[in-house]
Every structure is written in C-alpha cells, then in structure tokens.
Specification:
With 261 residues, this protein is an alpha/beta fold. It has 9 helices and 8 strands. It starts with 21 loop residues before the first helix and ends in an 8-residue tail after the last helix.
C-alpha cells in the first residue's frame, strides 16, 4: 500500500483557496505565513562559514552558515556597522568587516582588527570557530522582518562562557524575531527566567517530549536560592527524565496547559 506524504509540514495538505470557513482560512493563512518565516540555523558550522559563502542575494546566513559572507555583502552600510558594534562591545580590537566579490560572484570575507595602532585584515579562513559563530549571531537582528522564528542548536559551542550570557542577552534584545535555542550550558541556563526554560526528555514510548521548568513543582522551592542551571546541573539524568515525563503527563491531562511533543 502506497502512502501519501506531505512535501513539508502538515500545512502542505491544507488547500486554502476553497476553504469554506473564511475565519478559519484567515487563521490558517496567518499560521502558514508564520511557519514560512522560520529560519533554522541548527547546523551552524564554522567550516561552512569560511569556505561556502554563497553568491547572489540571500535573506539569511543559511542553515550551516554557508551564506554568511553573501548575507553580509548584501546589507547596507548602517546594518554592517550595527553588526560591528555588537562585536566590538566584547572584542574592542575589531574595527570592521569587509566583503569583496571575487570572480564568479563568490564572496571574500575579512575581519579588520587593530592592535597597538597596527591595522590587520584577517581572512575568514584564519578566524577562530568561536568568533565566526559570534559573527553569525550578530547578524540575527538584521534578518528580514518576515523572519518569525530562528532555531539554534548547542548555541554555546566554541564561545567563551565568560561572554556568552551577556552576548546572547544583547542579541535577543536587539532582534525582532523569536529565538529558540538548545544548550547544555548550566551557566547560560542560569541567565534565563524560569518561565522560558524547557527541559527535553524521552517518553516511555521513545518520543521527544518537553516540560517547562515552572511546571515542575519539585523545583519551585529550589528556585528561591539556586539558579535554574544549578538545579539542572545537580540533578541526575534519571530524575530529570522522570520529572519531565510526569510534568508532561499532567499537561496532557489539562488541555489549558502548554504541551510540547
């Protein structure tokens, strides 16, 4: 028996042109428009940022960051300057970014720095992994207004933990889009309010499930004297999984409660 599979999400099954309910059609159109604005950067790779800069006009930096150079090259001067300012708040030696079109339209990305009054231009191939990831994050607030949600995975990879929380706080405040990120850094989790923190686990059947920290009553008293990251770091994997499964089951039993599966 042959199955019929959607090309994308379940929304691809919905035919809105002839939908009989006008209100429902508008709601679905809004939902589809929002979904089309989701940008996944969960495979960010410094190697791709160095060597796979795309040609032509692009709207984001690409799932691996391979379009970073092309995206920067297409920005107006004031947007590039804002990116530089975000970075210089933590790396004052940075003085600018240059994007030069090479033969066949490929982009050559260079970082301009100044040490003891000496100007240096460093090609992207010689820049550290962590700095390239910081540069990619600094570009997020310049994404088009149609971007509804940006997905980031293991956001702490390669980035100095001493600057990571403050840096991400700055990026989130300056971005008009919603940002969803995963992390295994208790230090970073400590900096977020409990209501936006979700823990991920597996259900008894093997499905990925999540529960908000504020929906786990066992942690409520601990939040009075410990940060969310500390609570997580001092809990065993088995206990965390049990608490997430229990909170998830309670949420399923109460339709008014948020459930993620």
């Amino acid at each position: 028996m042959l199955g019929i599979y959607p090309e994308g999400s379940a929304l691809s099954f919905i035919k809105l042109d002839n939908h009989p309910d006008r209100h429902a059609r508008q709601v679905l159109e809004d939902l589809r428009s929002w979904a089309e604005g989701i940008v996944s950067l969960e495979l960010l790779s410094p190697d791709s940022m160095r060597h796979r800069n795309a040609r032509g006009k692009v709207n984001d930096i690409g799932i691996r960051g391979e379009q970073l150079g092309a995206f920067l090259a297409g920005l107006p001067a004031d947007a590039k300057q804002r990116i530089v300012e975000r970075l210089t708040a933590f790396y004052p030696q940075l003085t600018g970014l240059t994007t030069t079109a090479k033969r066949a339209g490929w982009i050559d990305l260079k970082i301009a720095e100044s040490y003891r009054g000496r100007a240096l231009a460093v090609g992207a191939q010689h820049v550290s992994d962590g700095f390239l990831r910081l540069l990619a994050l600094a570009a997020l607030p310049e994404f088009p207004k149609t971007t509804s949600l940006v997905l980031l995975d293991e956001v702490e990879n390669g980035i100095d933990p001493l600057i990571l929380p403050d840096y991400l706080d700055m990026i989130s405040r300056q971005s008009s889009t919603q940002i969803m990120m995963t992390t295994h850094s208790p230090l970073l989790v400590n900096r977020f309010p409990p209501e936006v923190i979700h823990f991920i686990a597996r259900s008894e059947g093997g499905a990925s499930i999540s529960a908000r920290l504020v929906d786990i009553p066992e942690f409520e008293t601990e939040l009075e004297y410990r940060g969310a990251g500390e609570i997580w770091a001092h809990s065993s994997l088995g206990r965390m999984s049990e608490l997430v499964r229990a909170a998830h089951e309670r949420a399923k039993a109460n339709p008014a409660t948020e459930v993620s599966e």
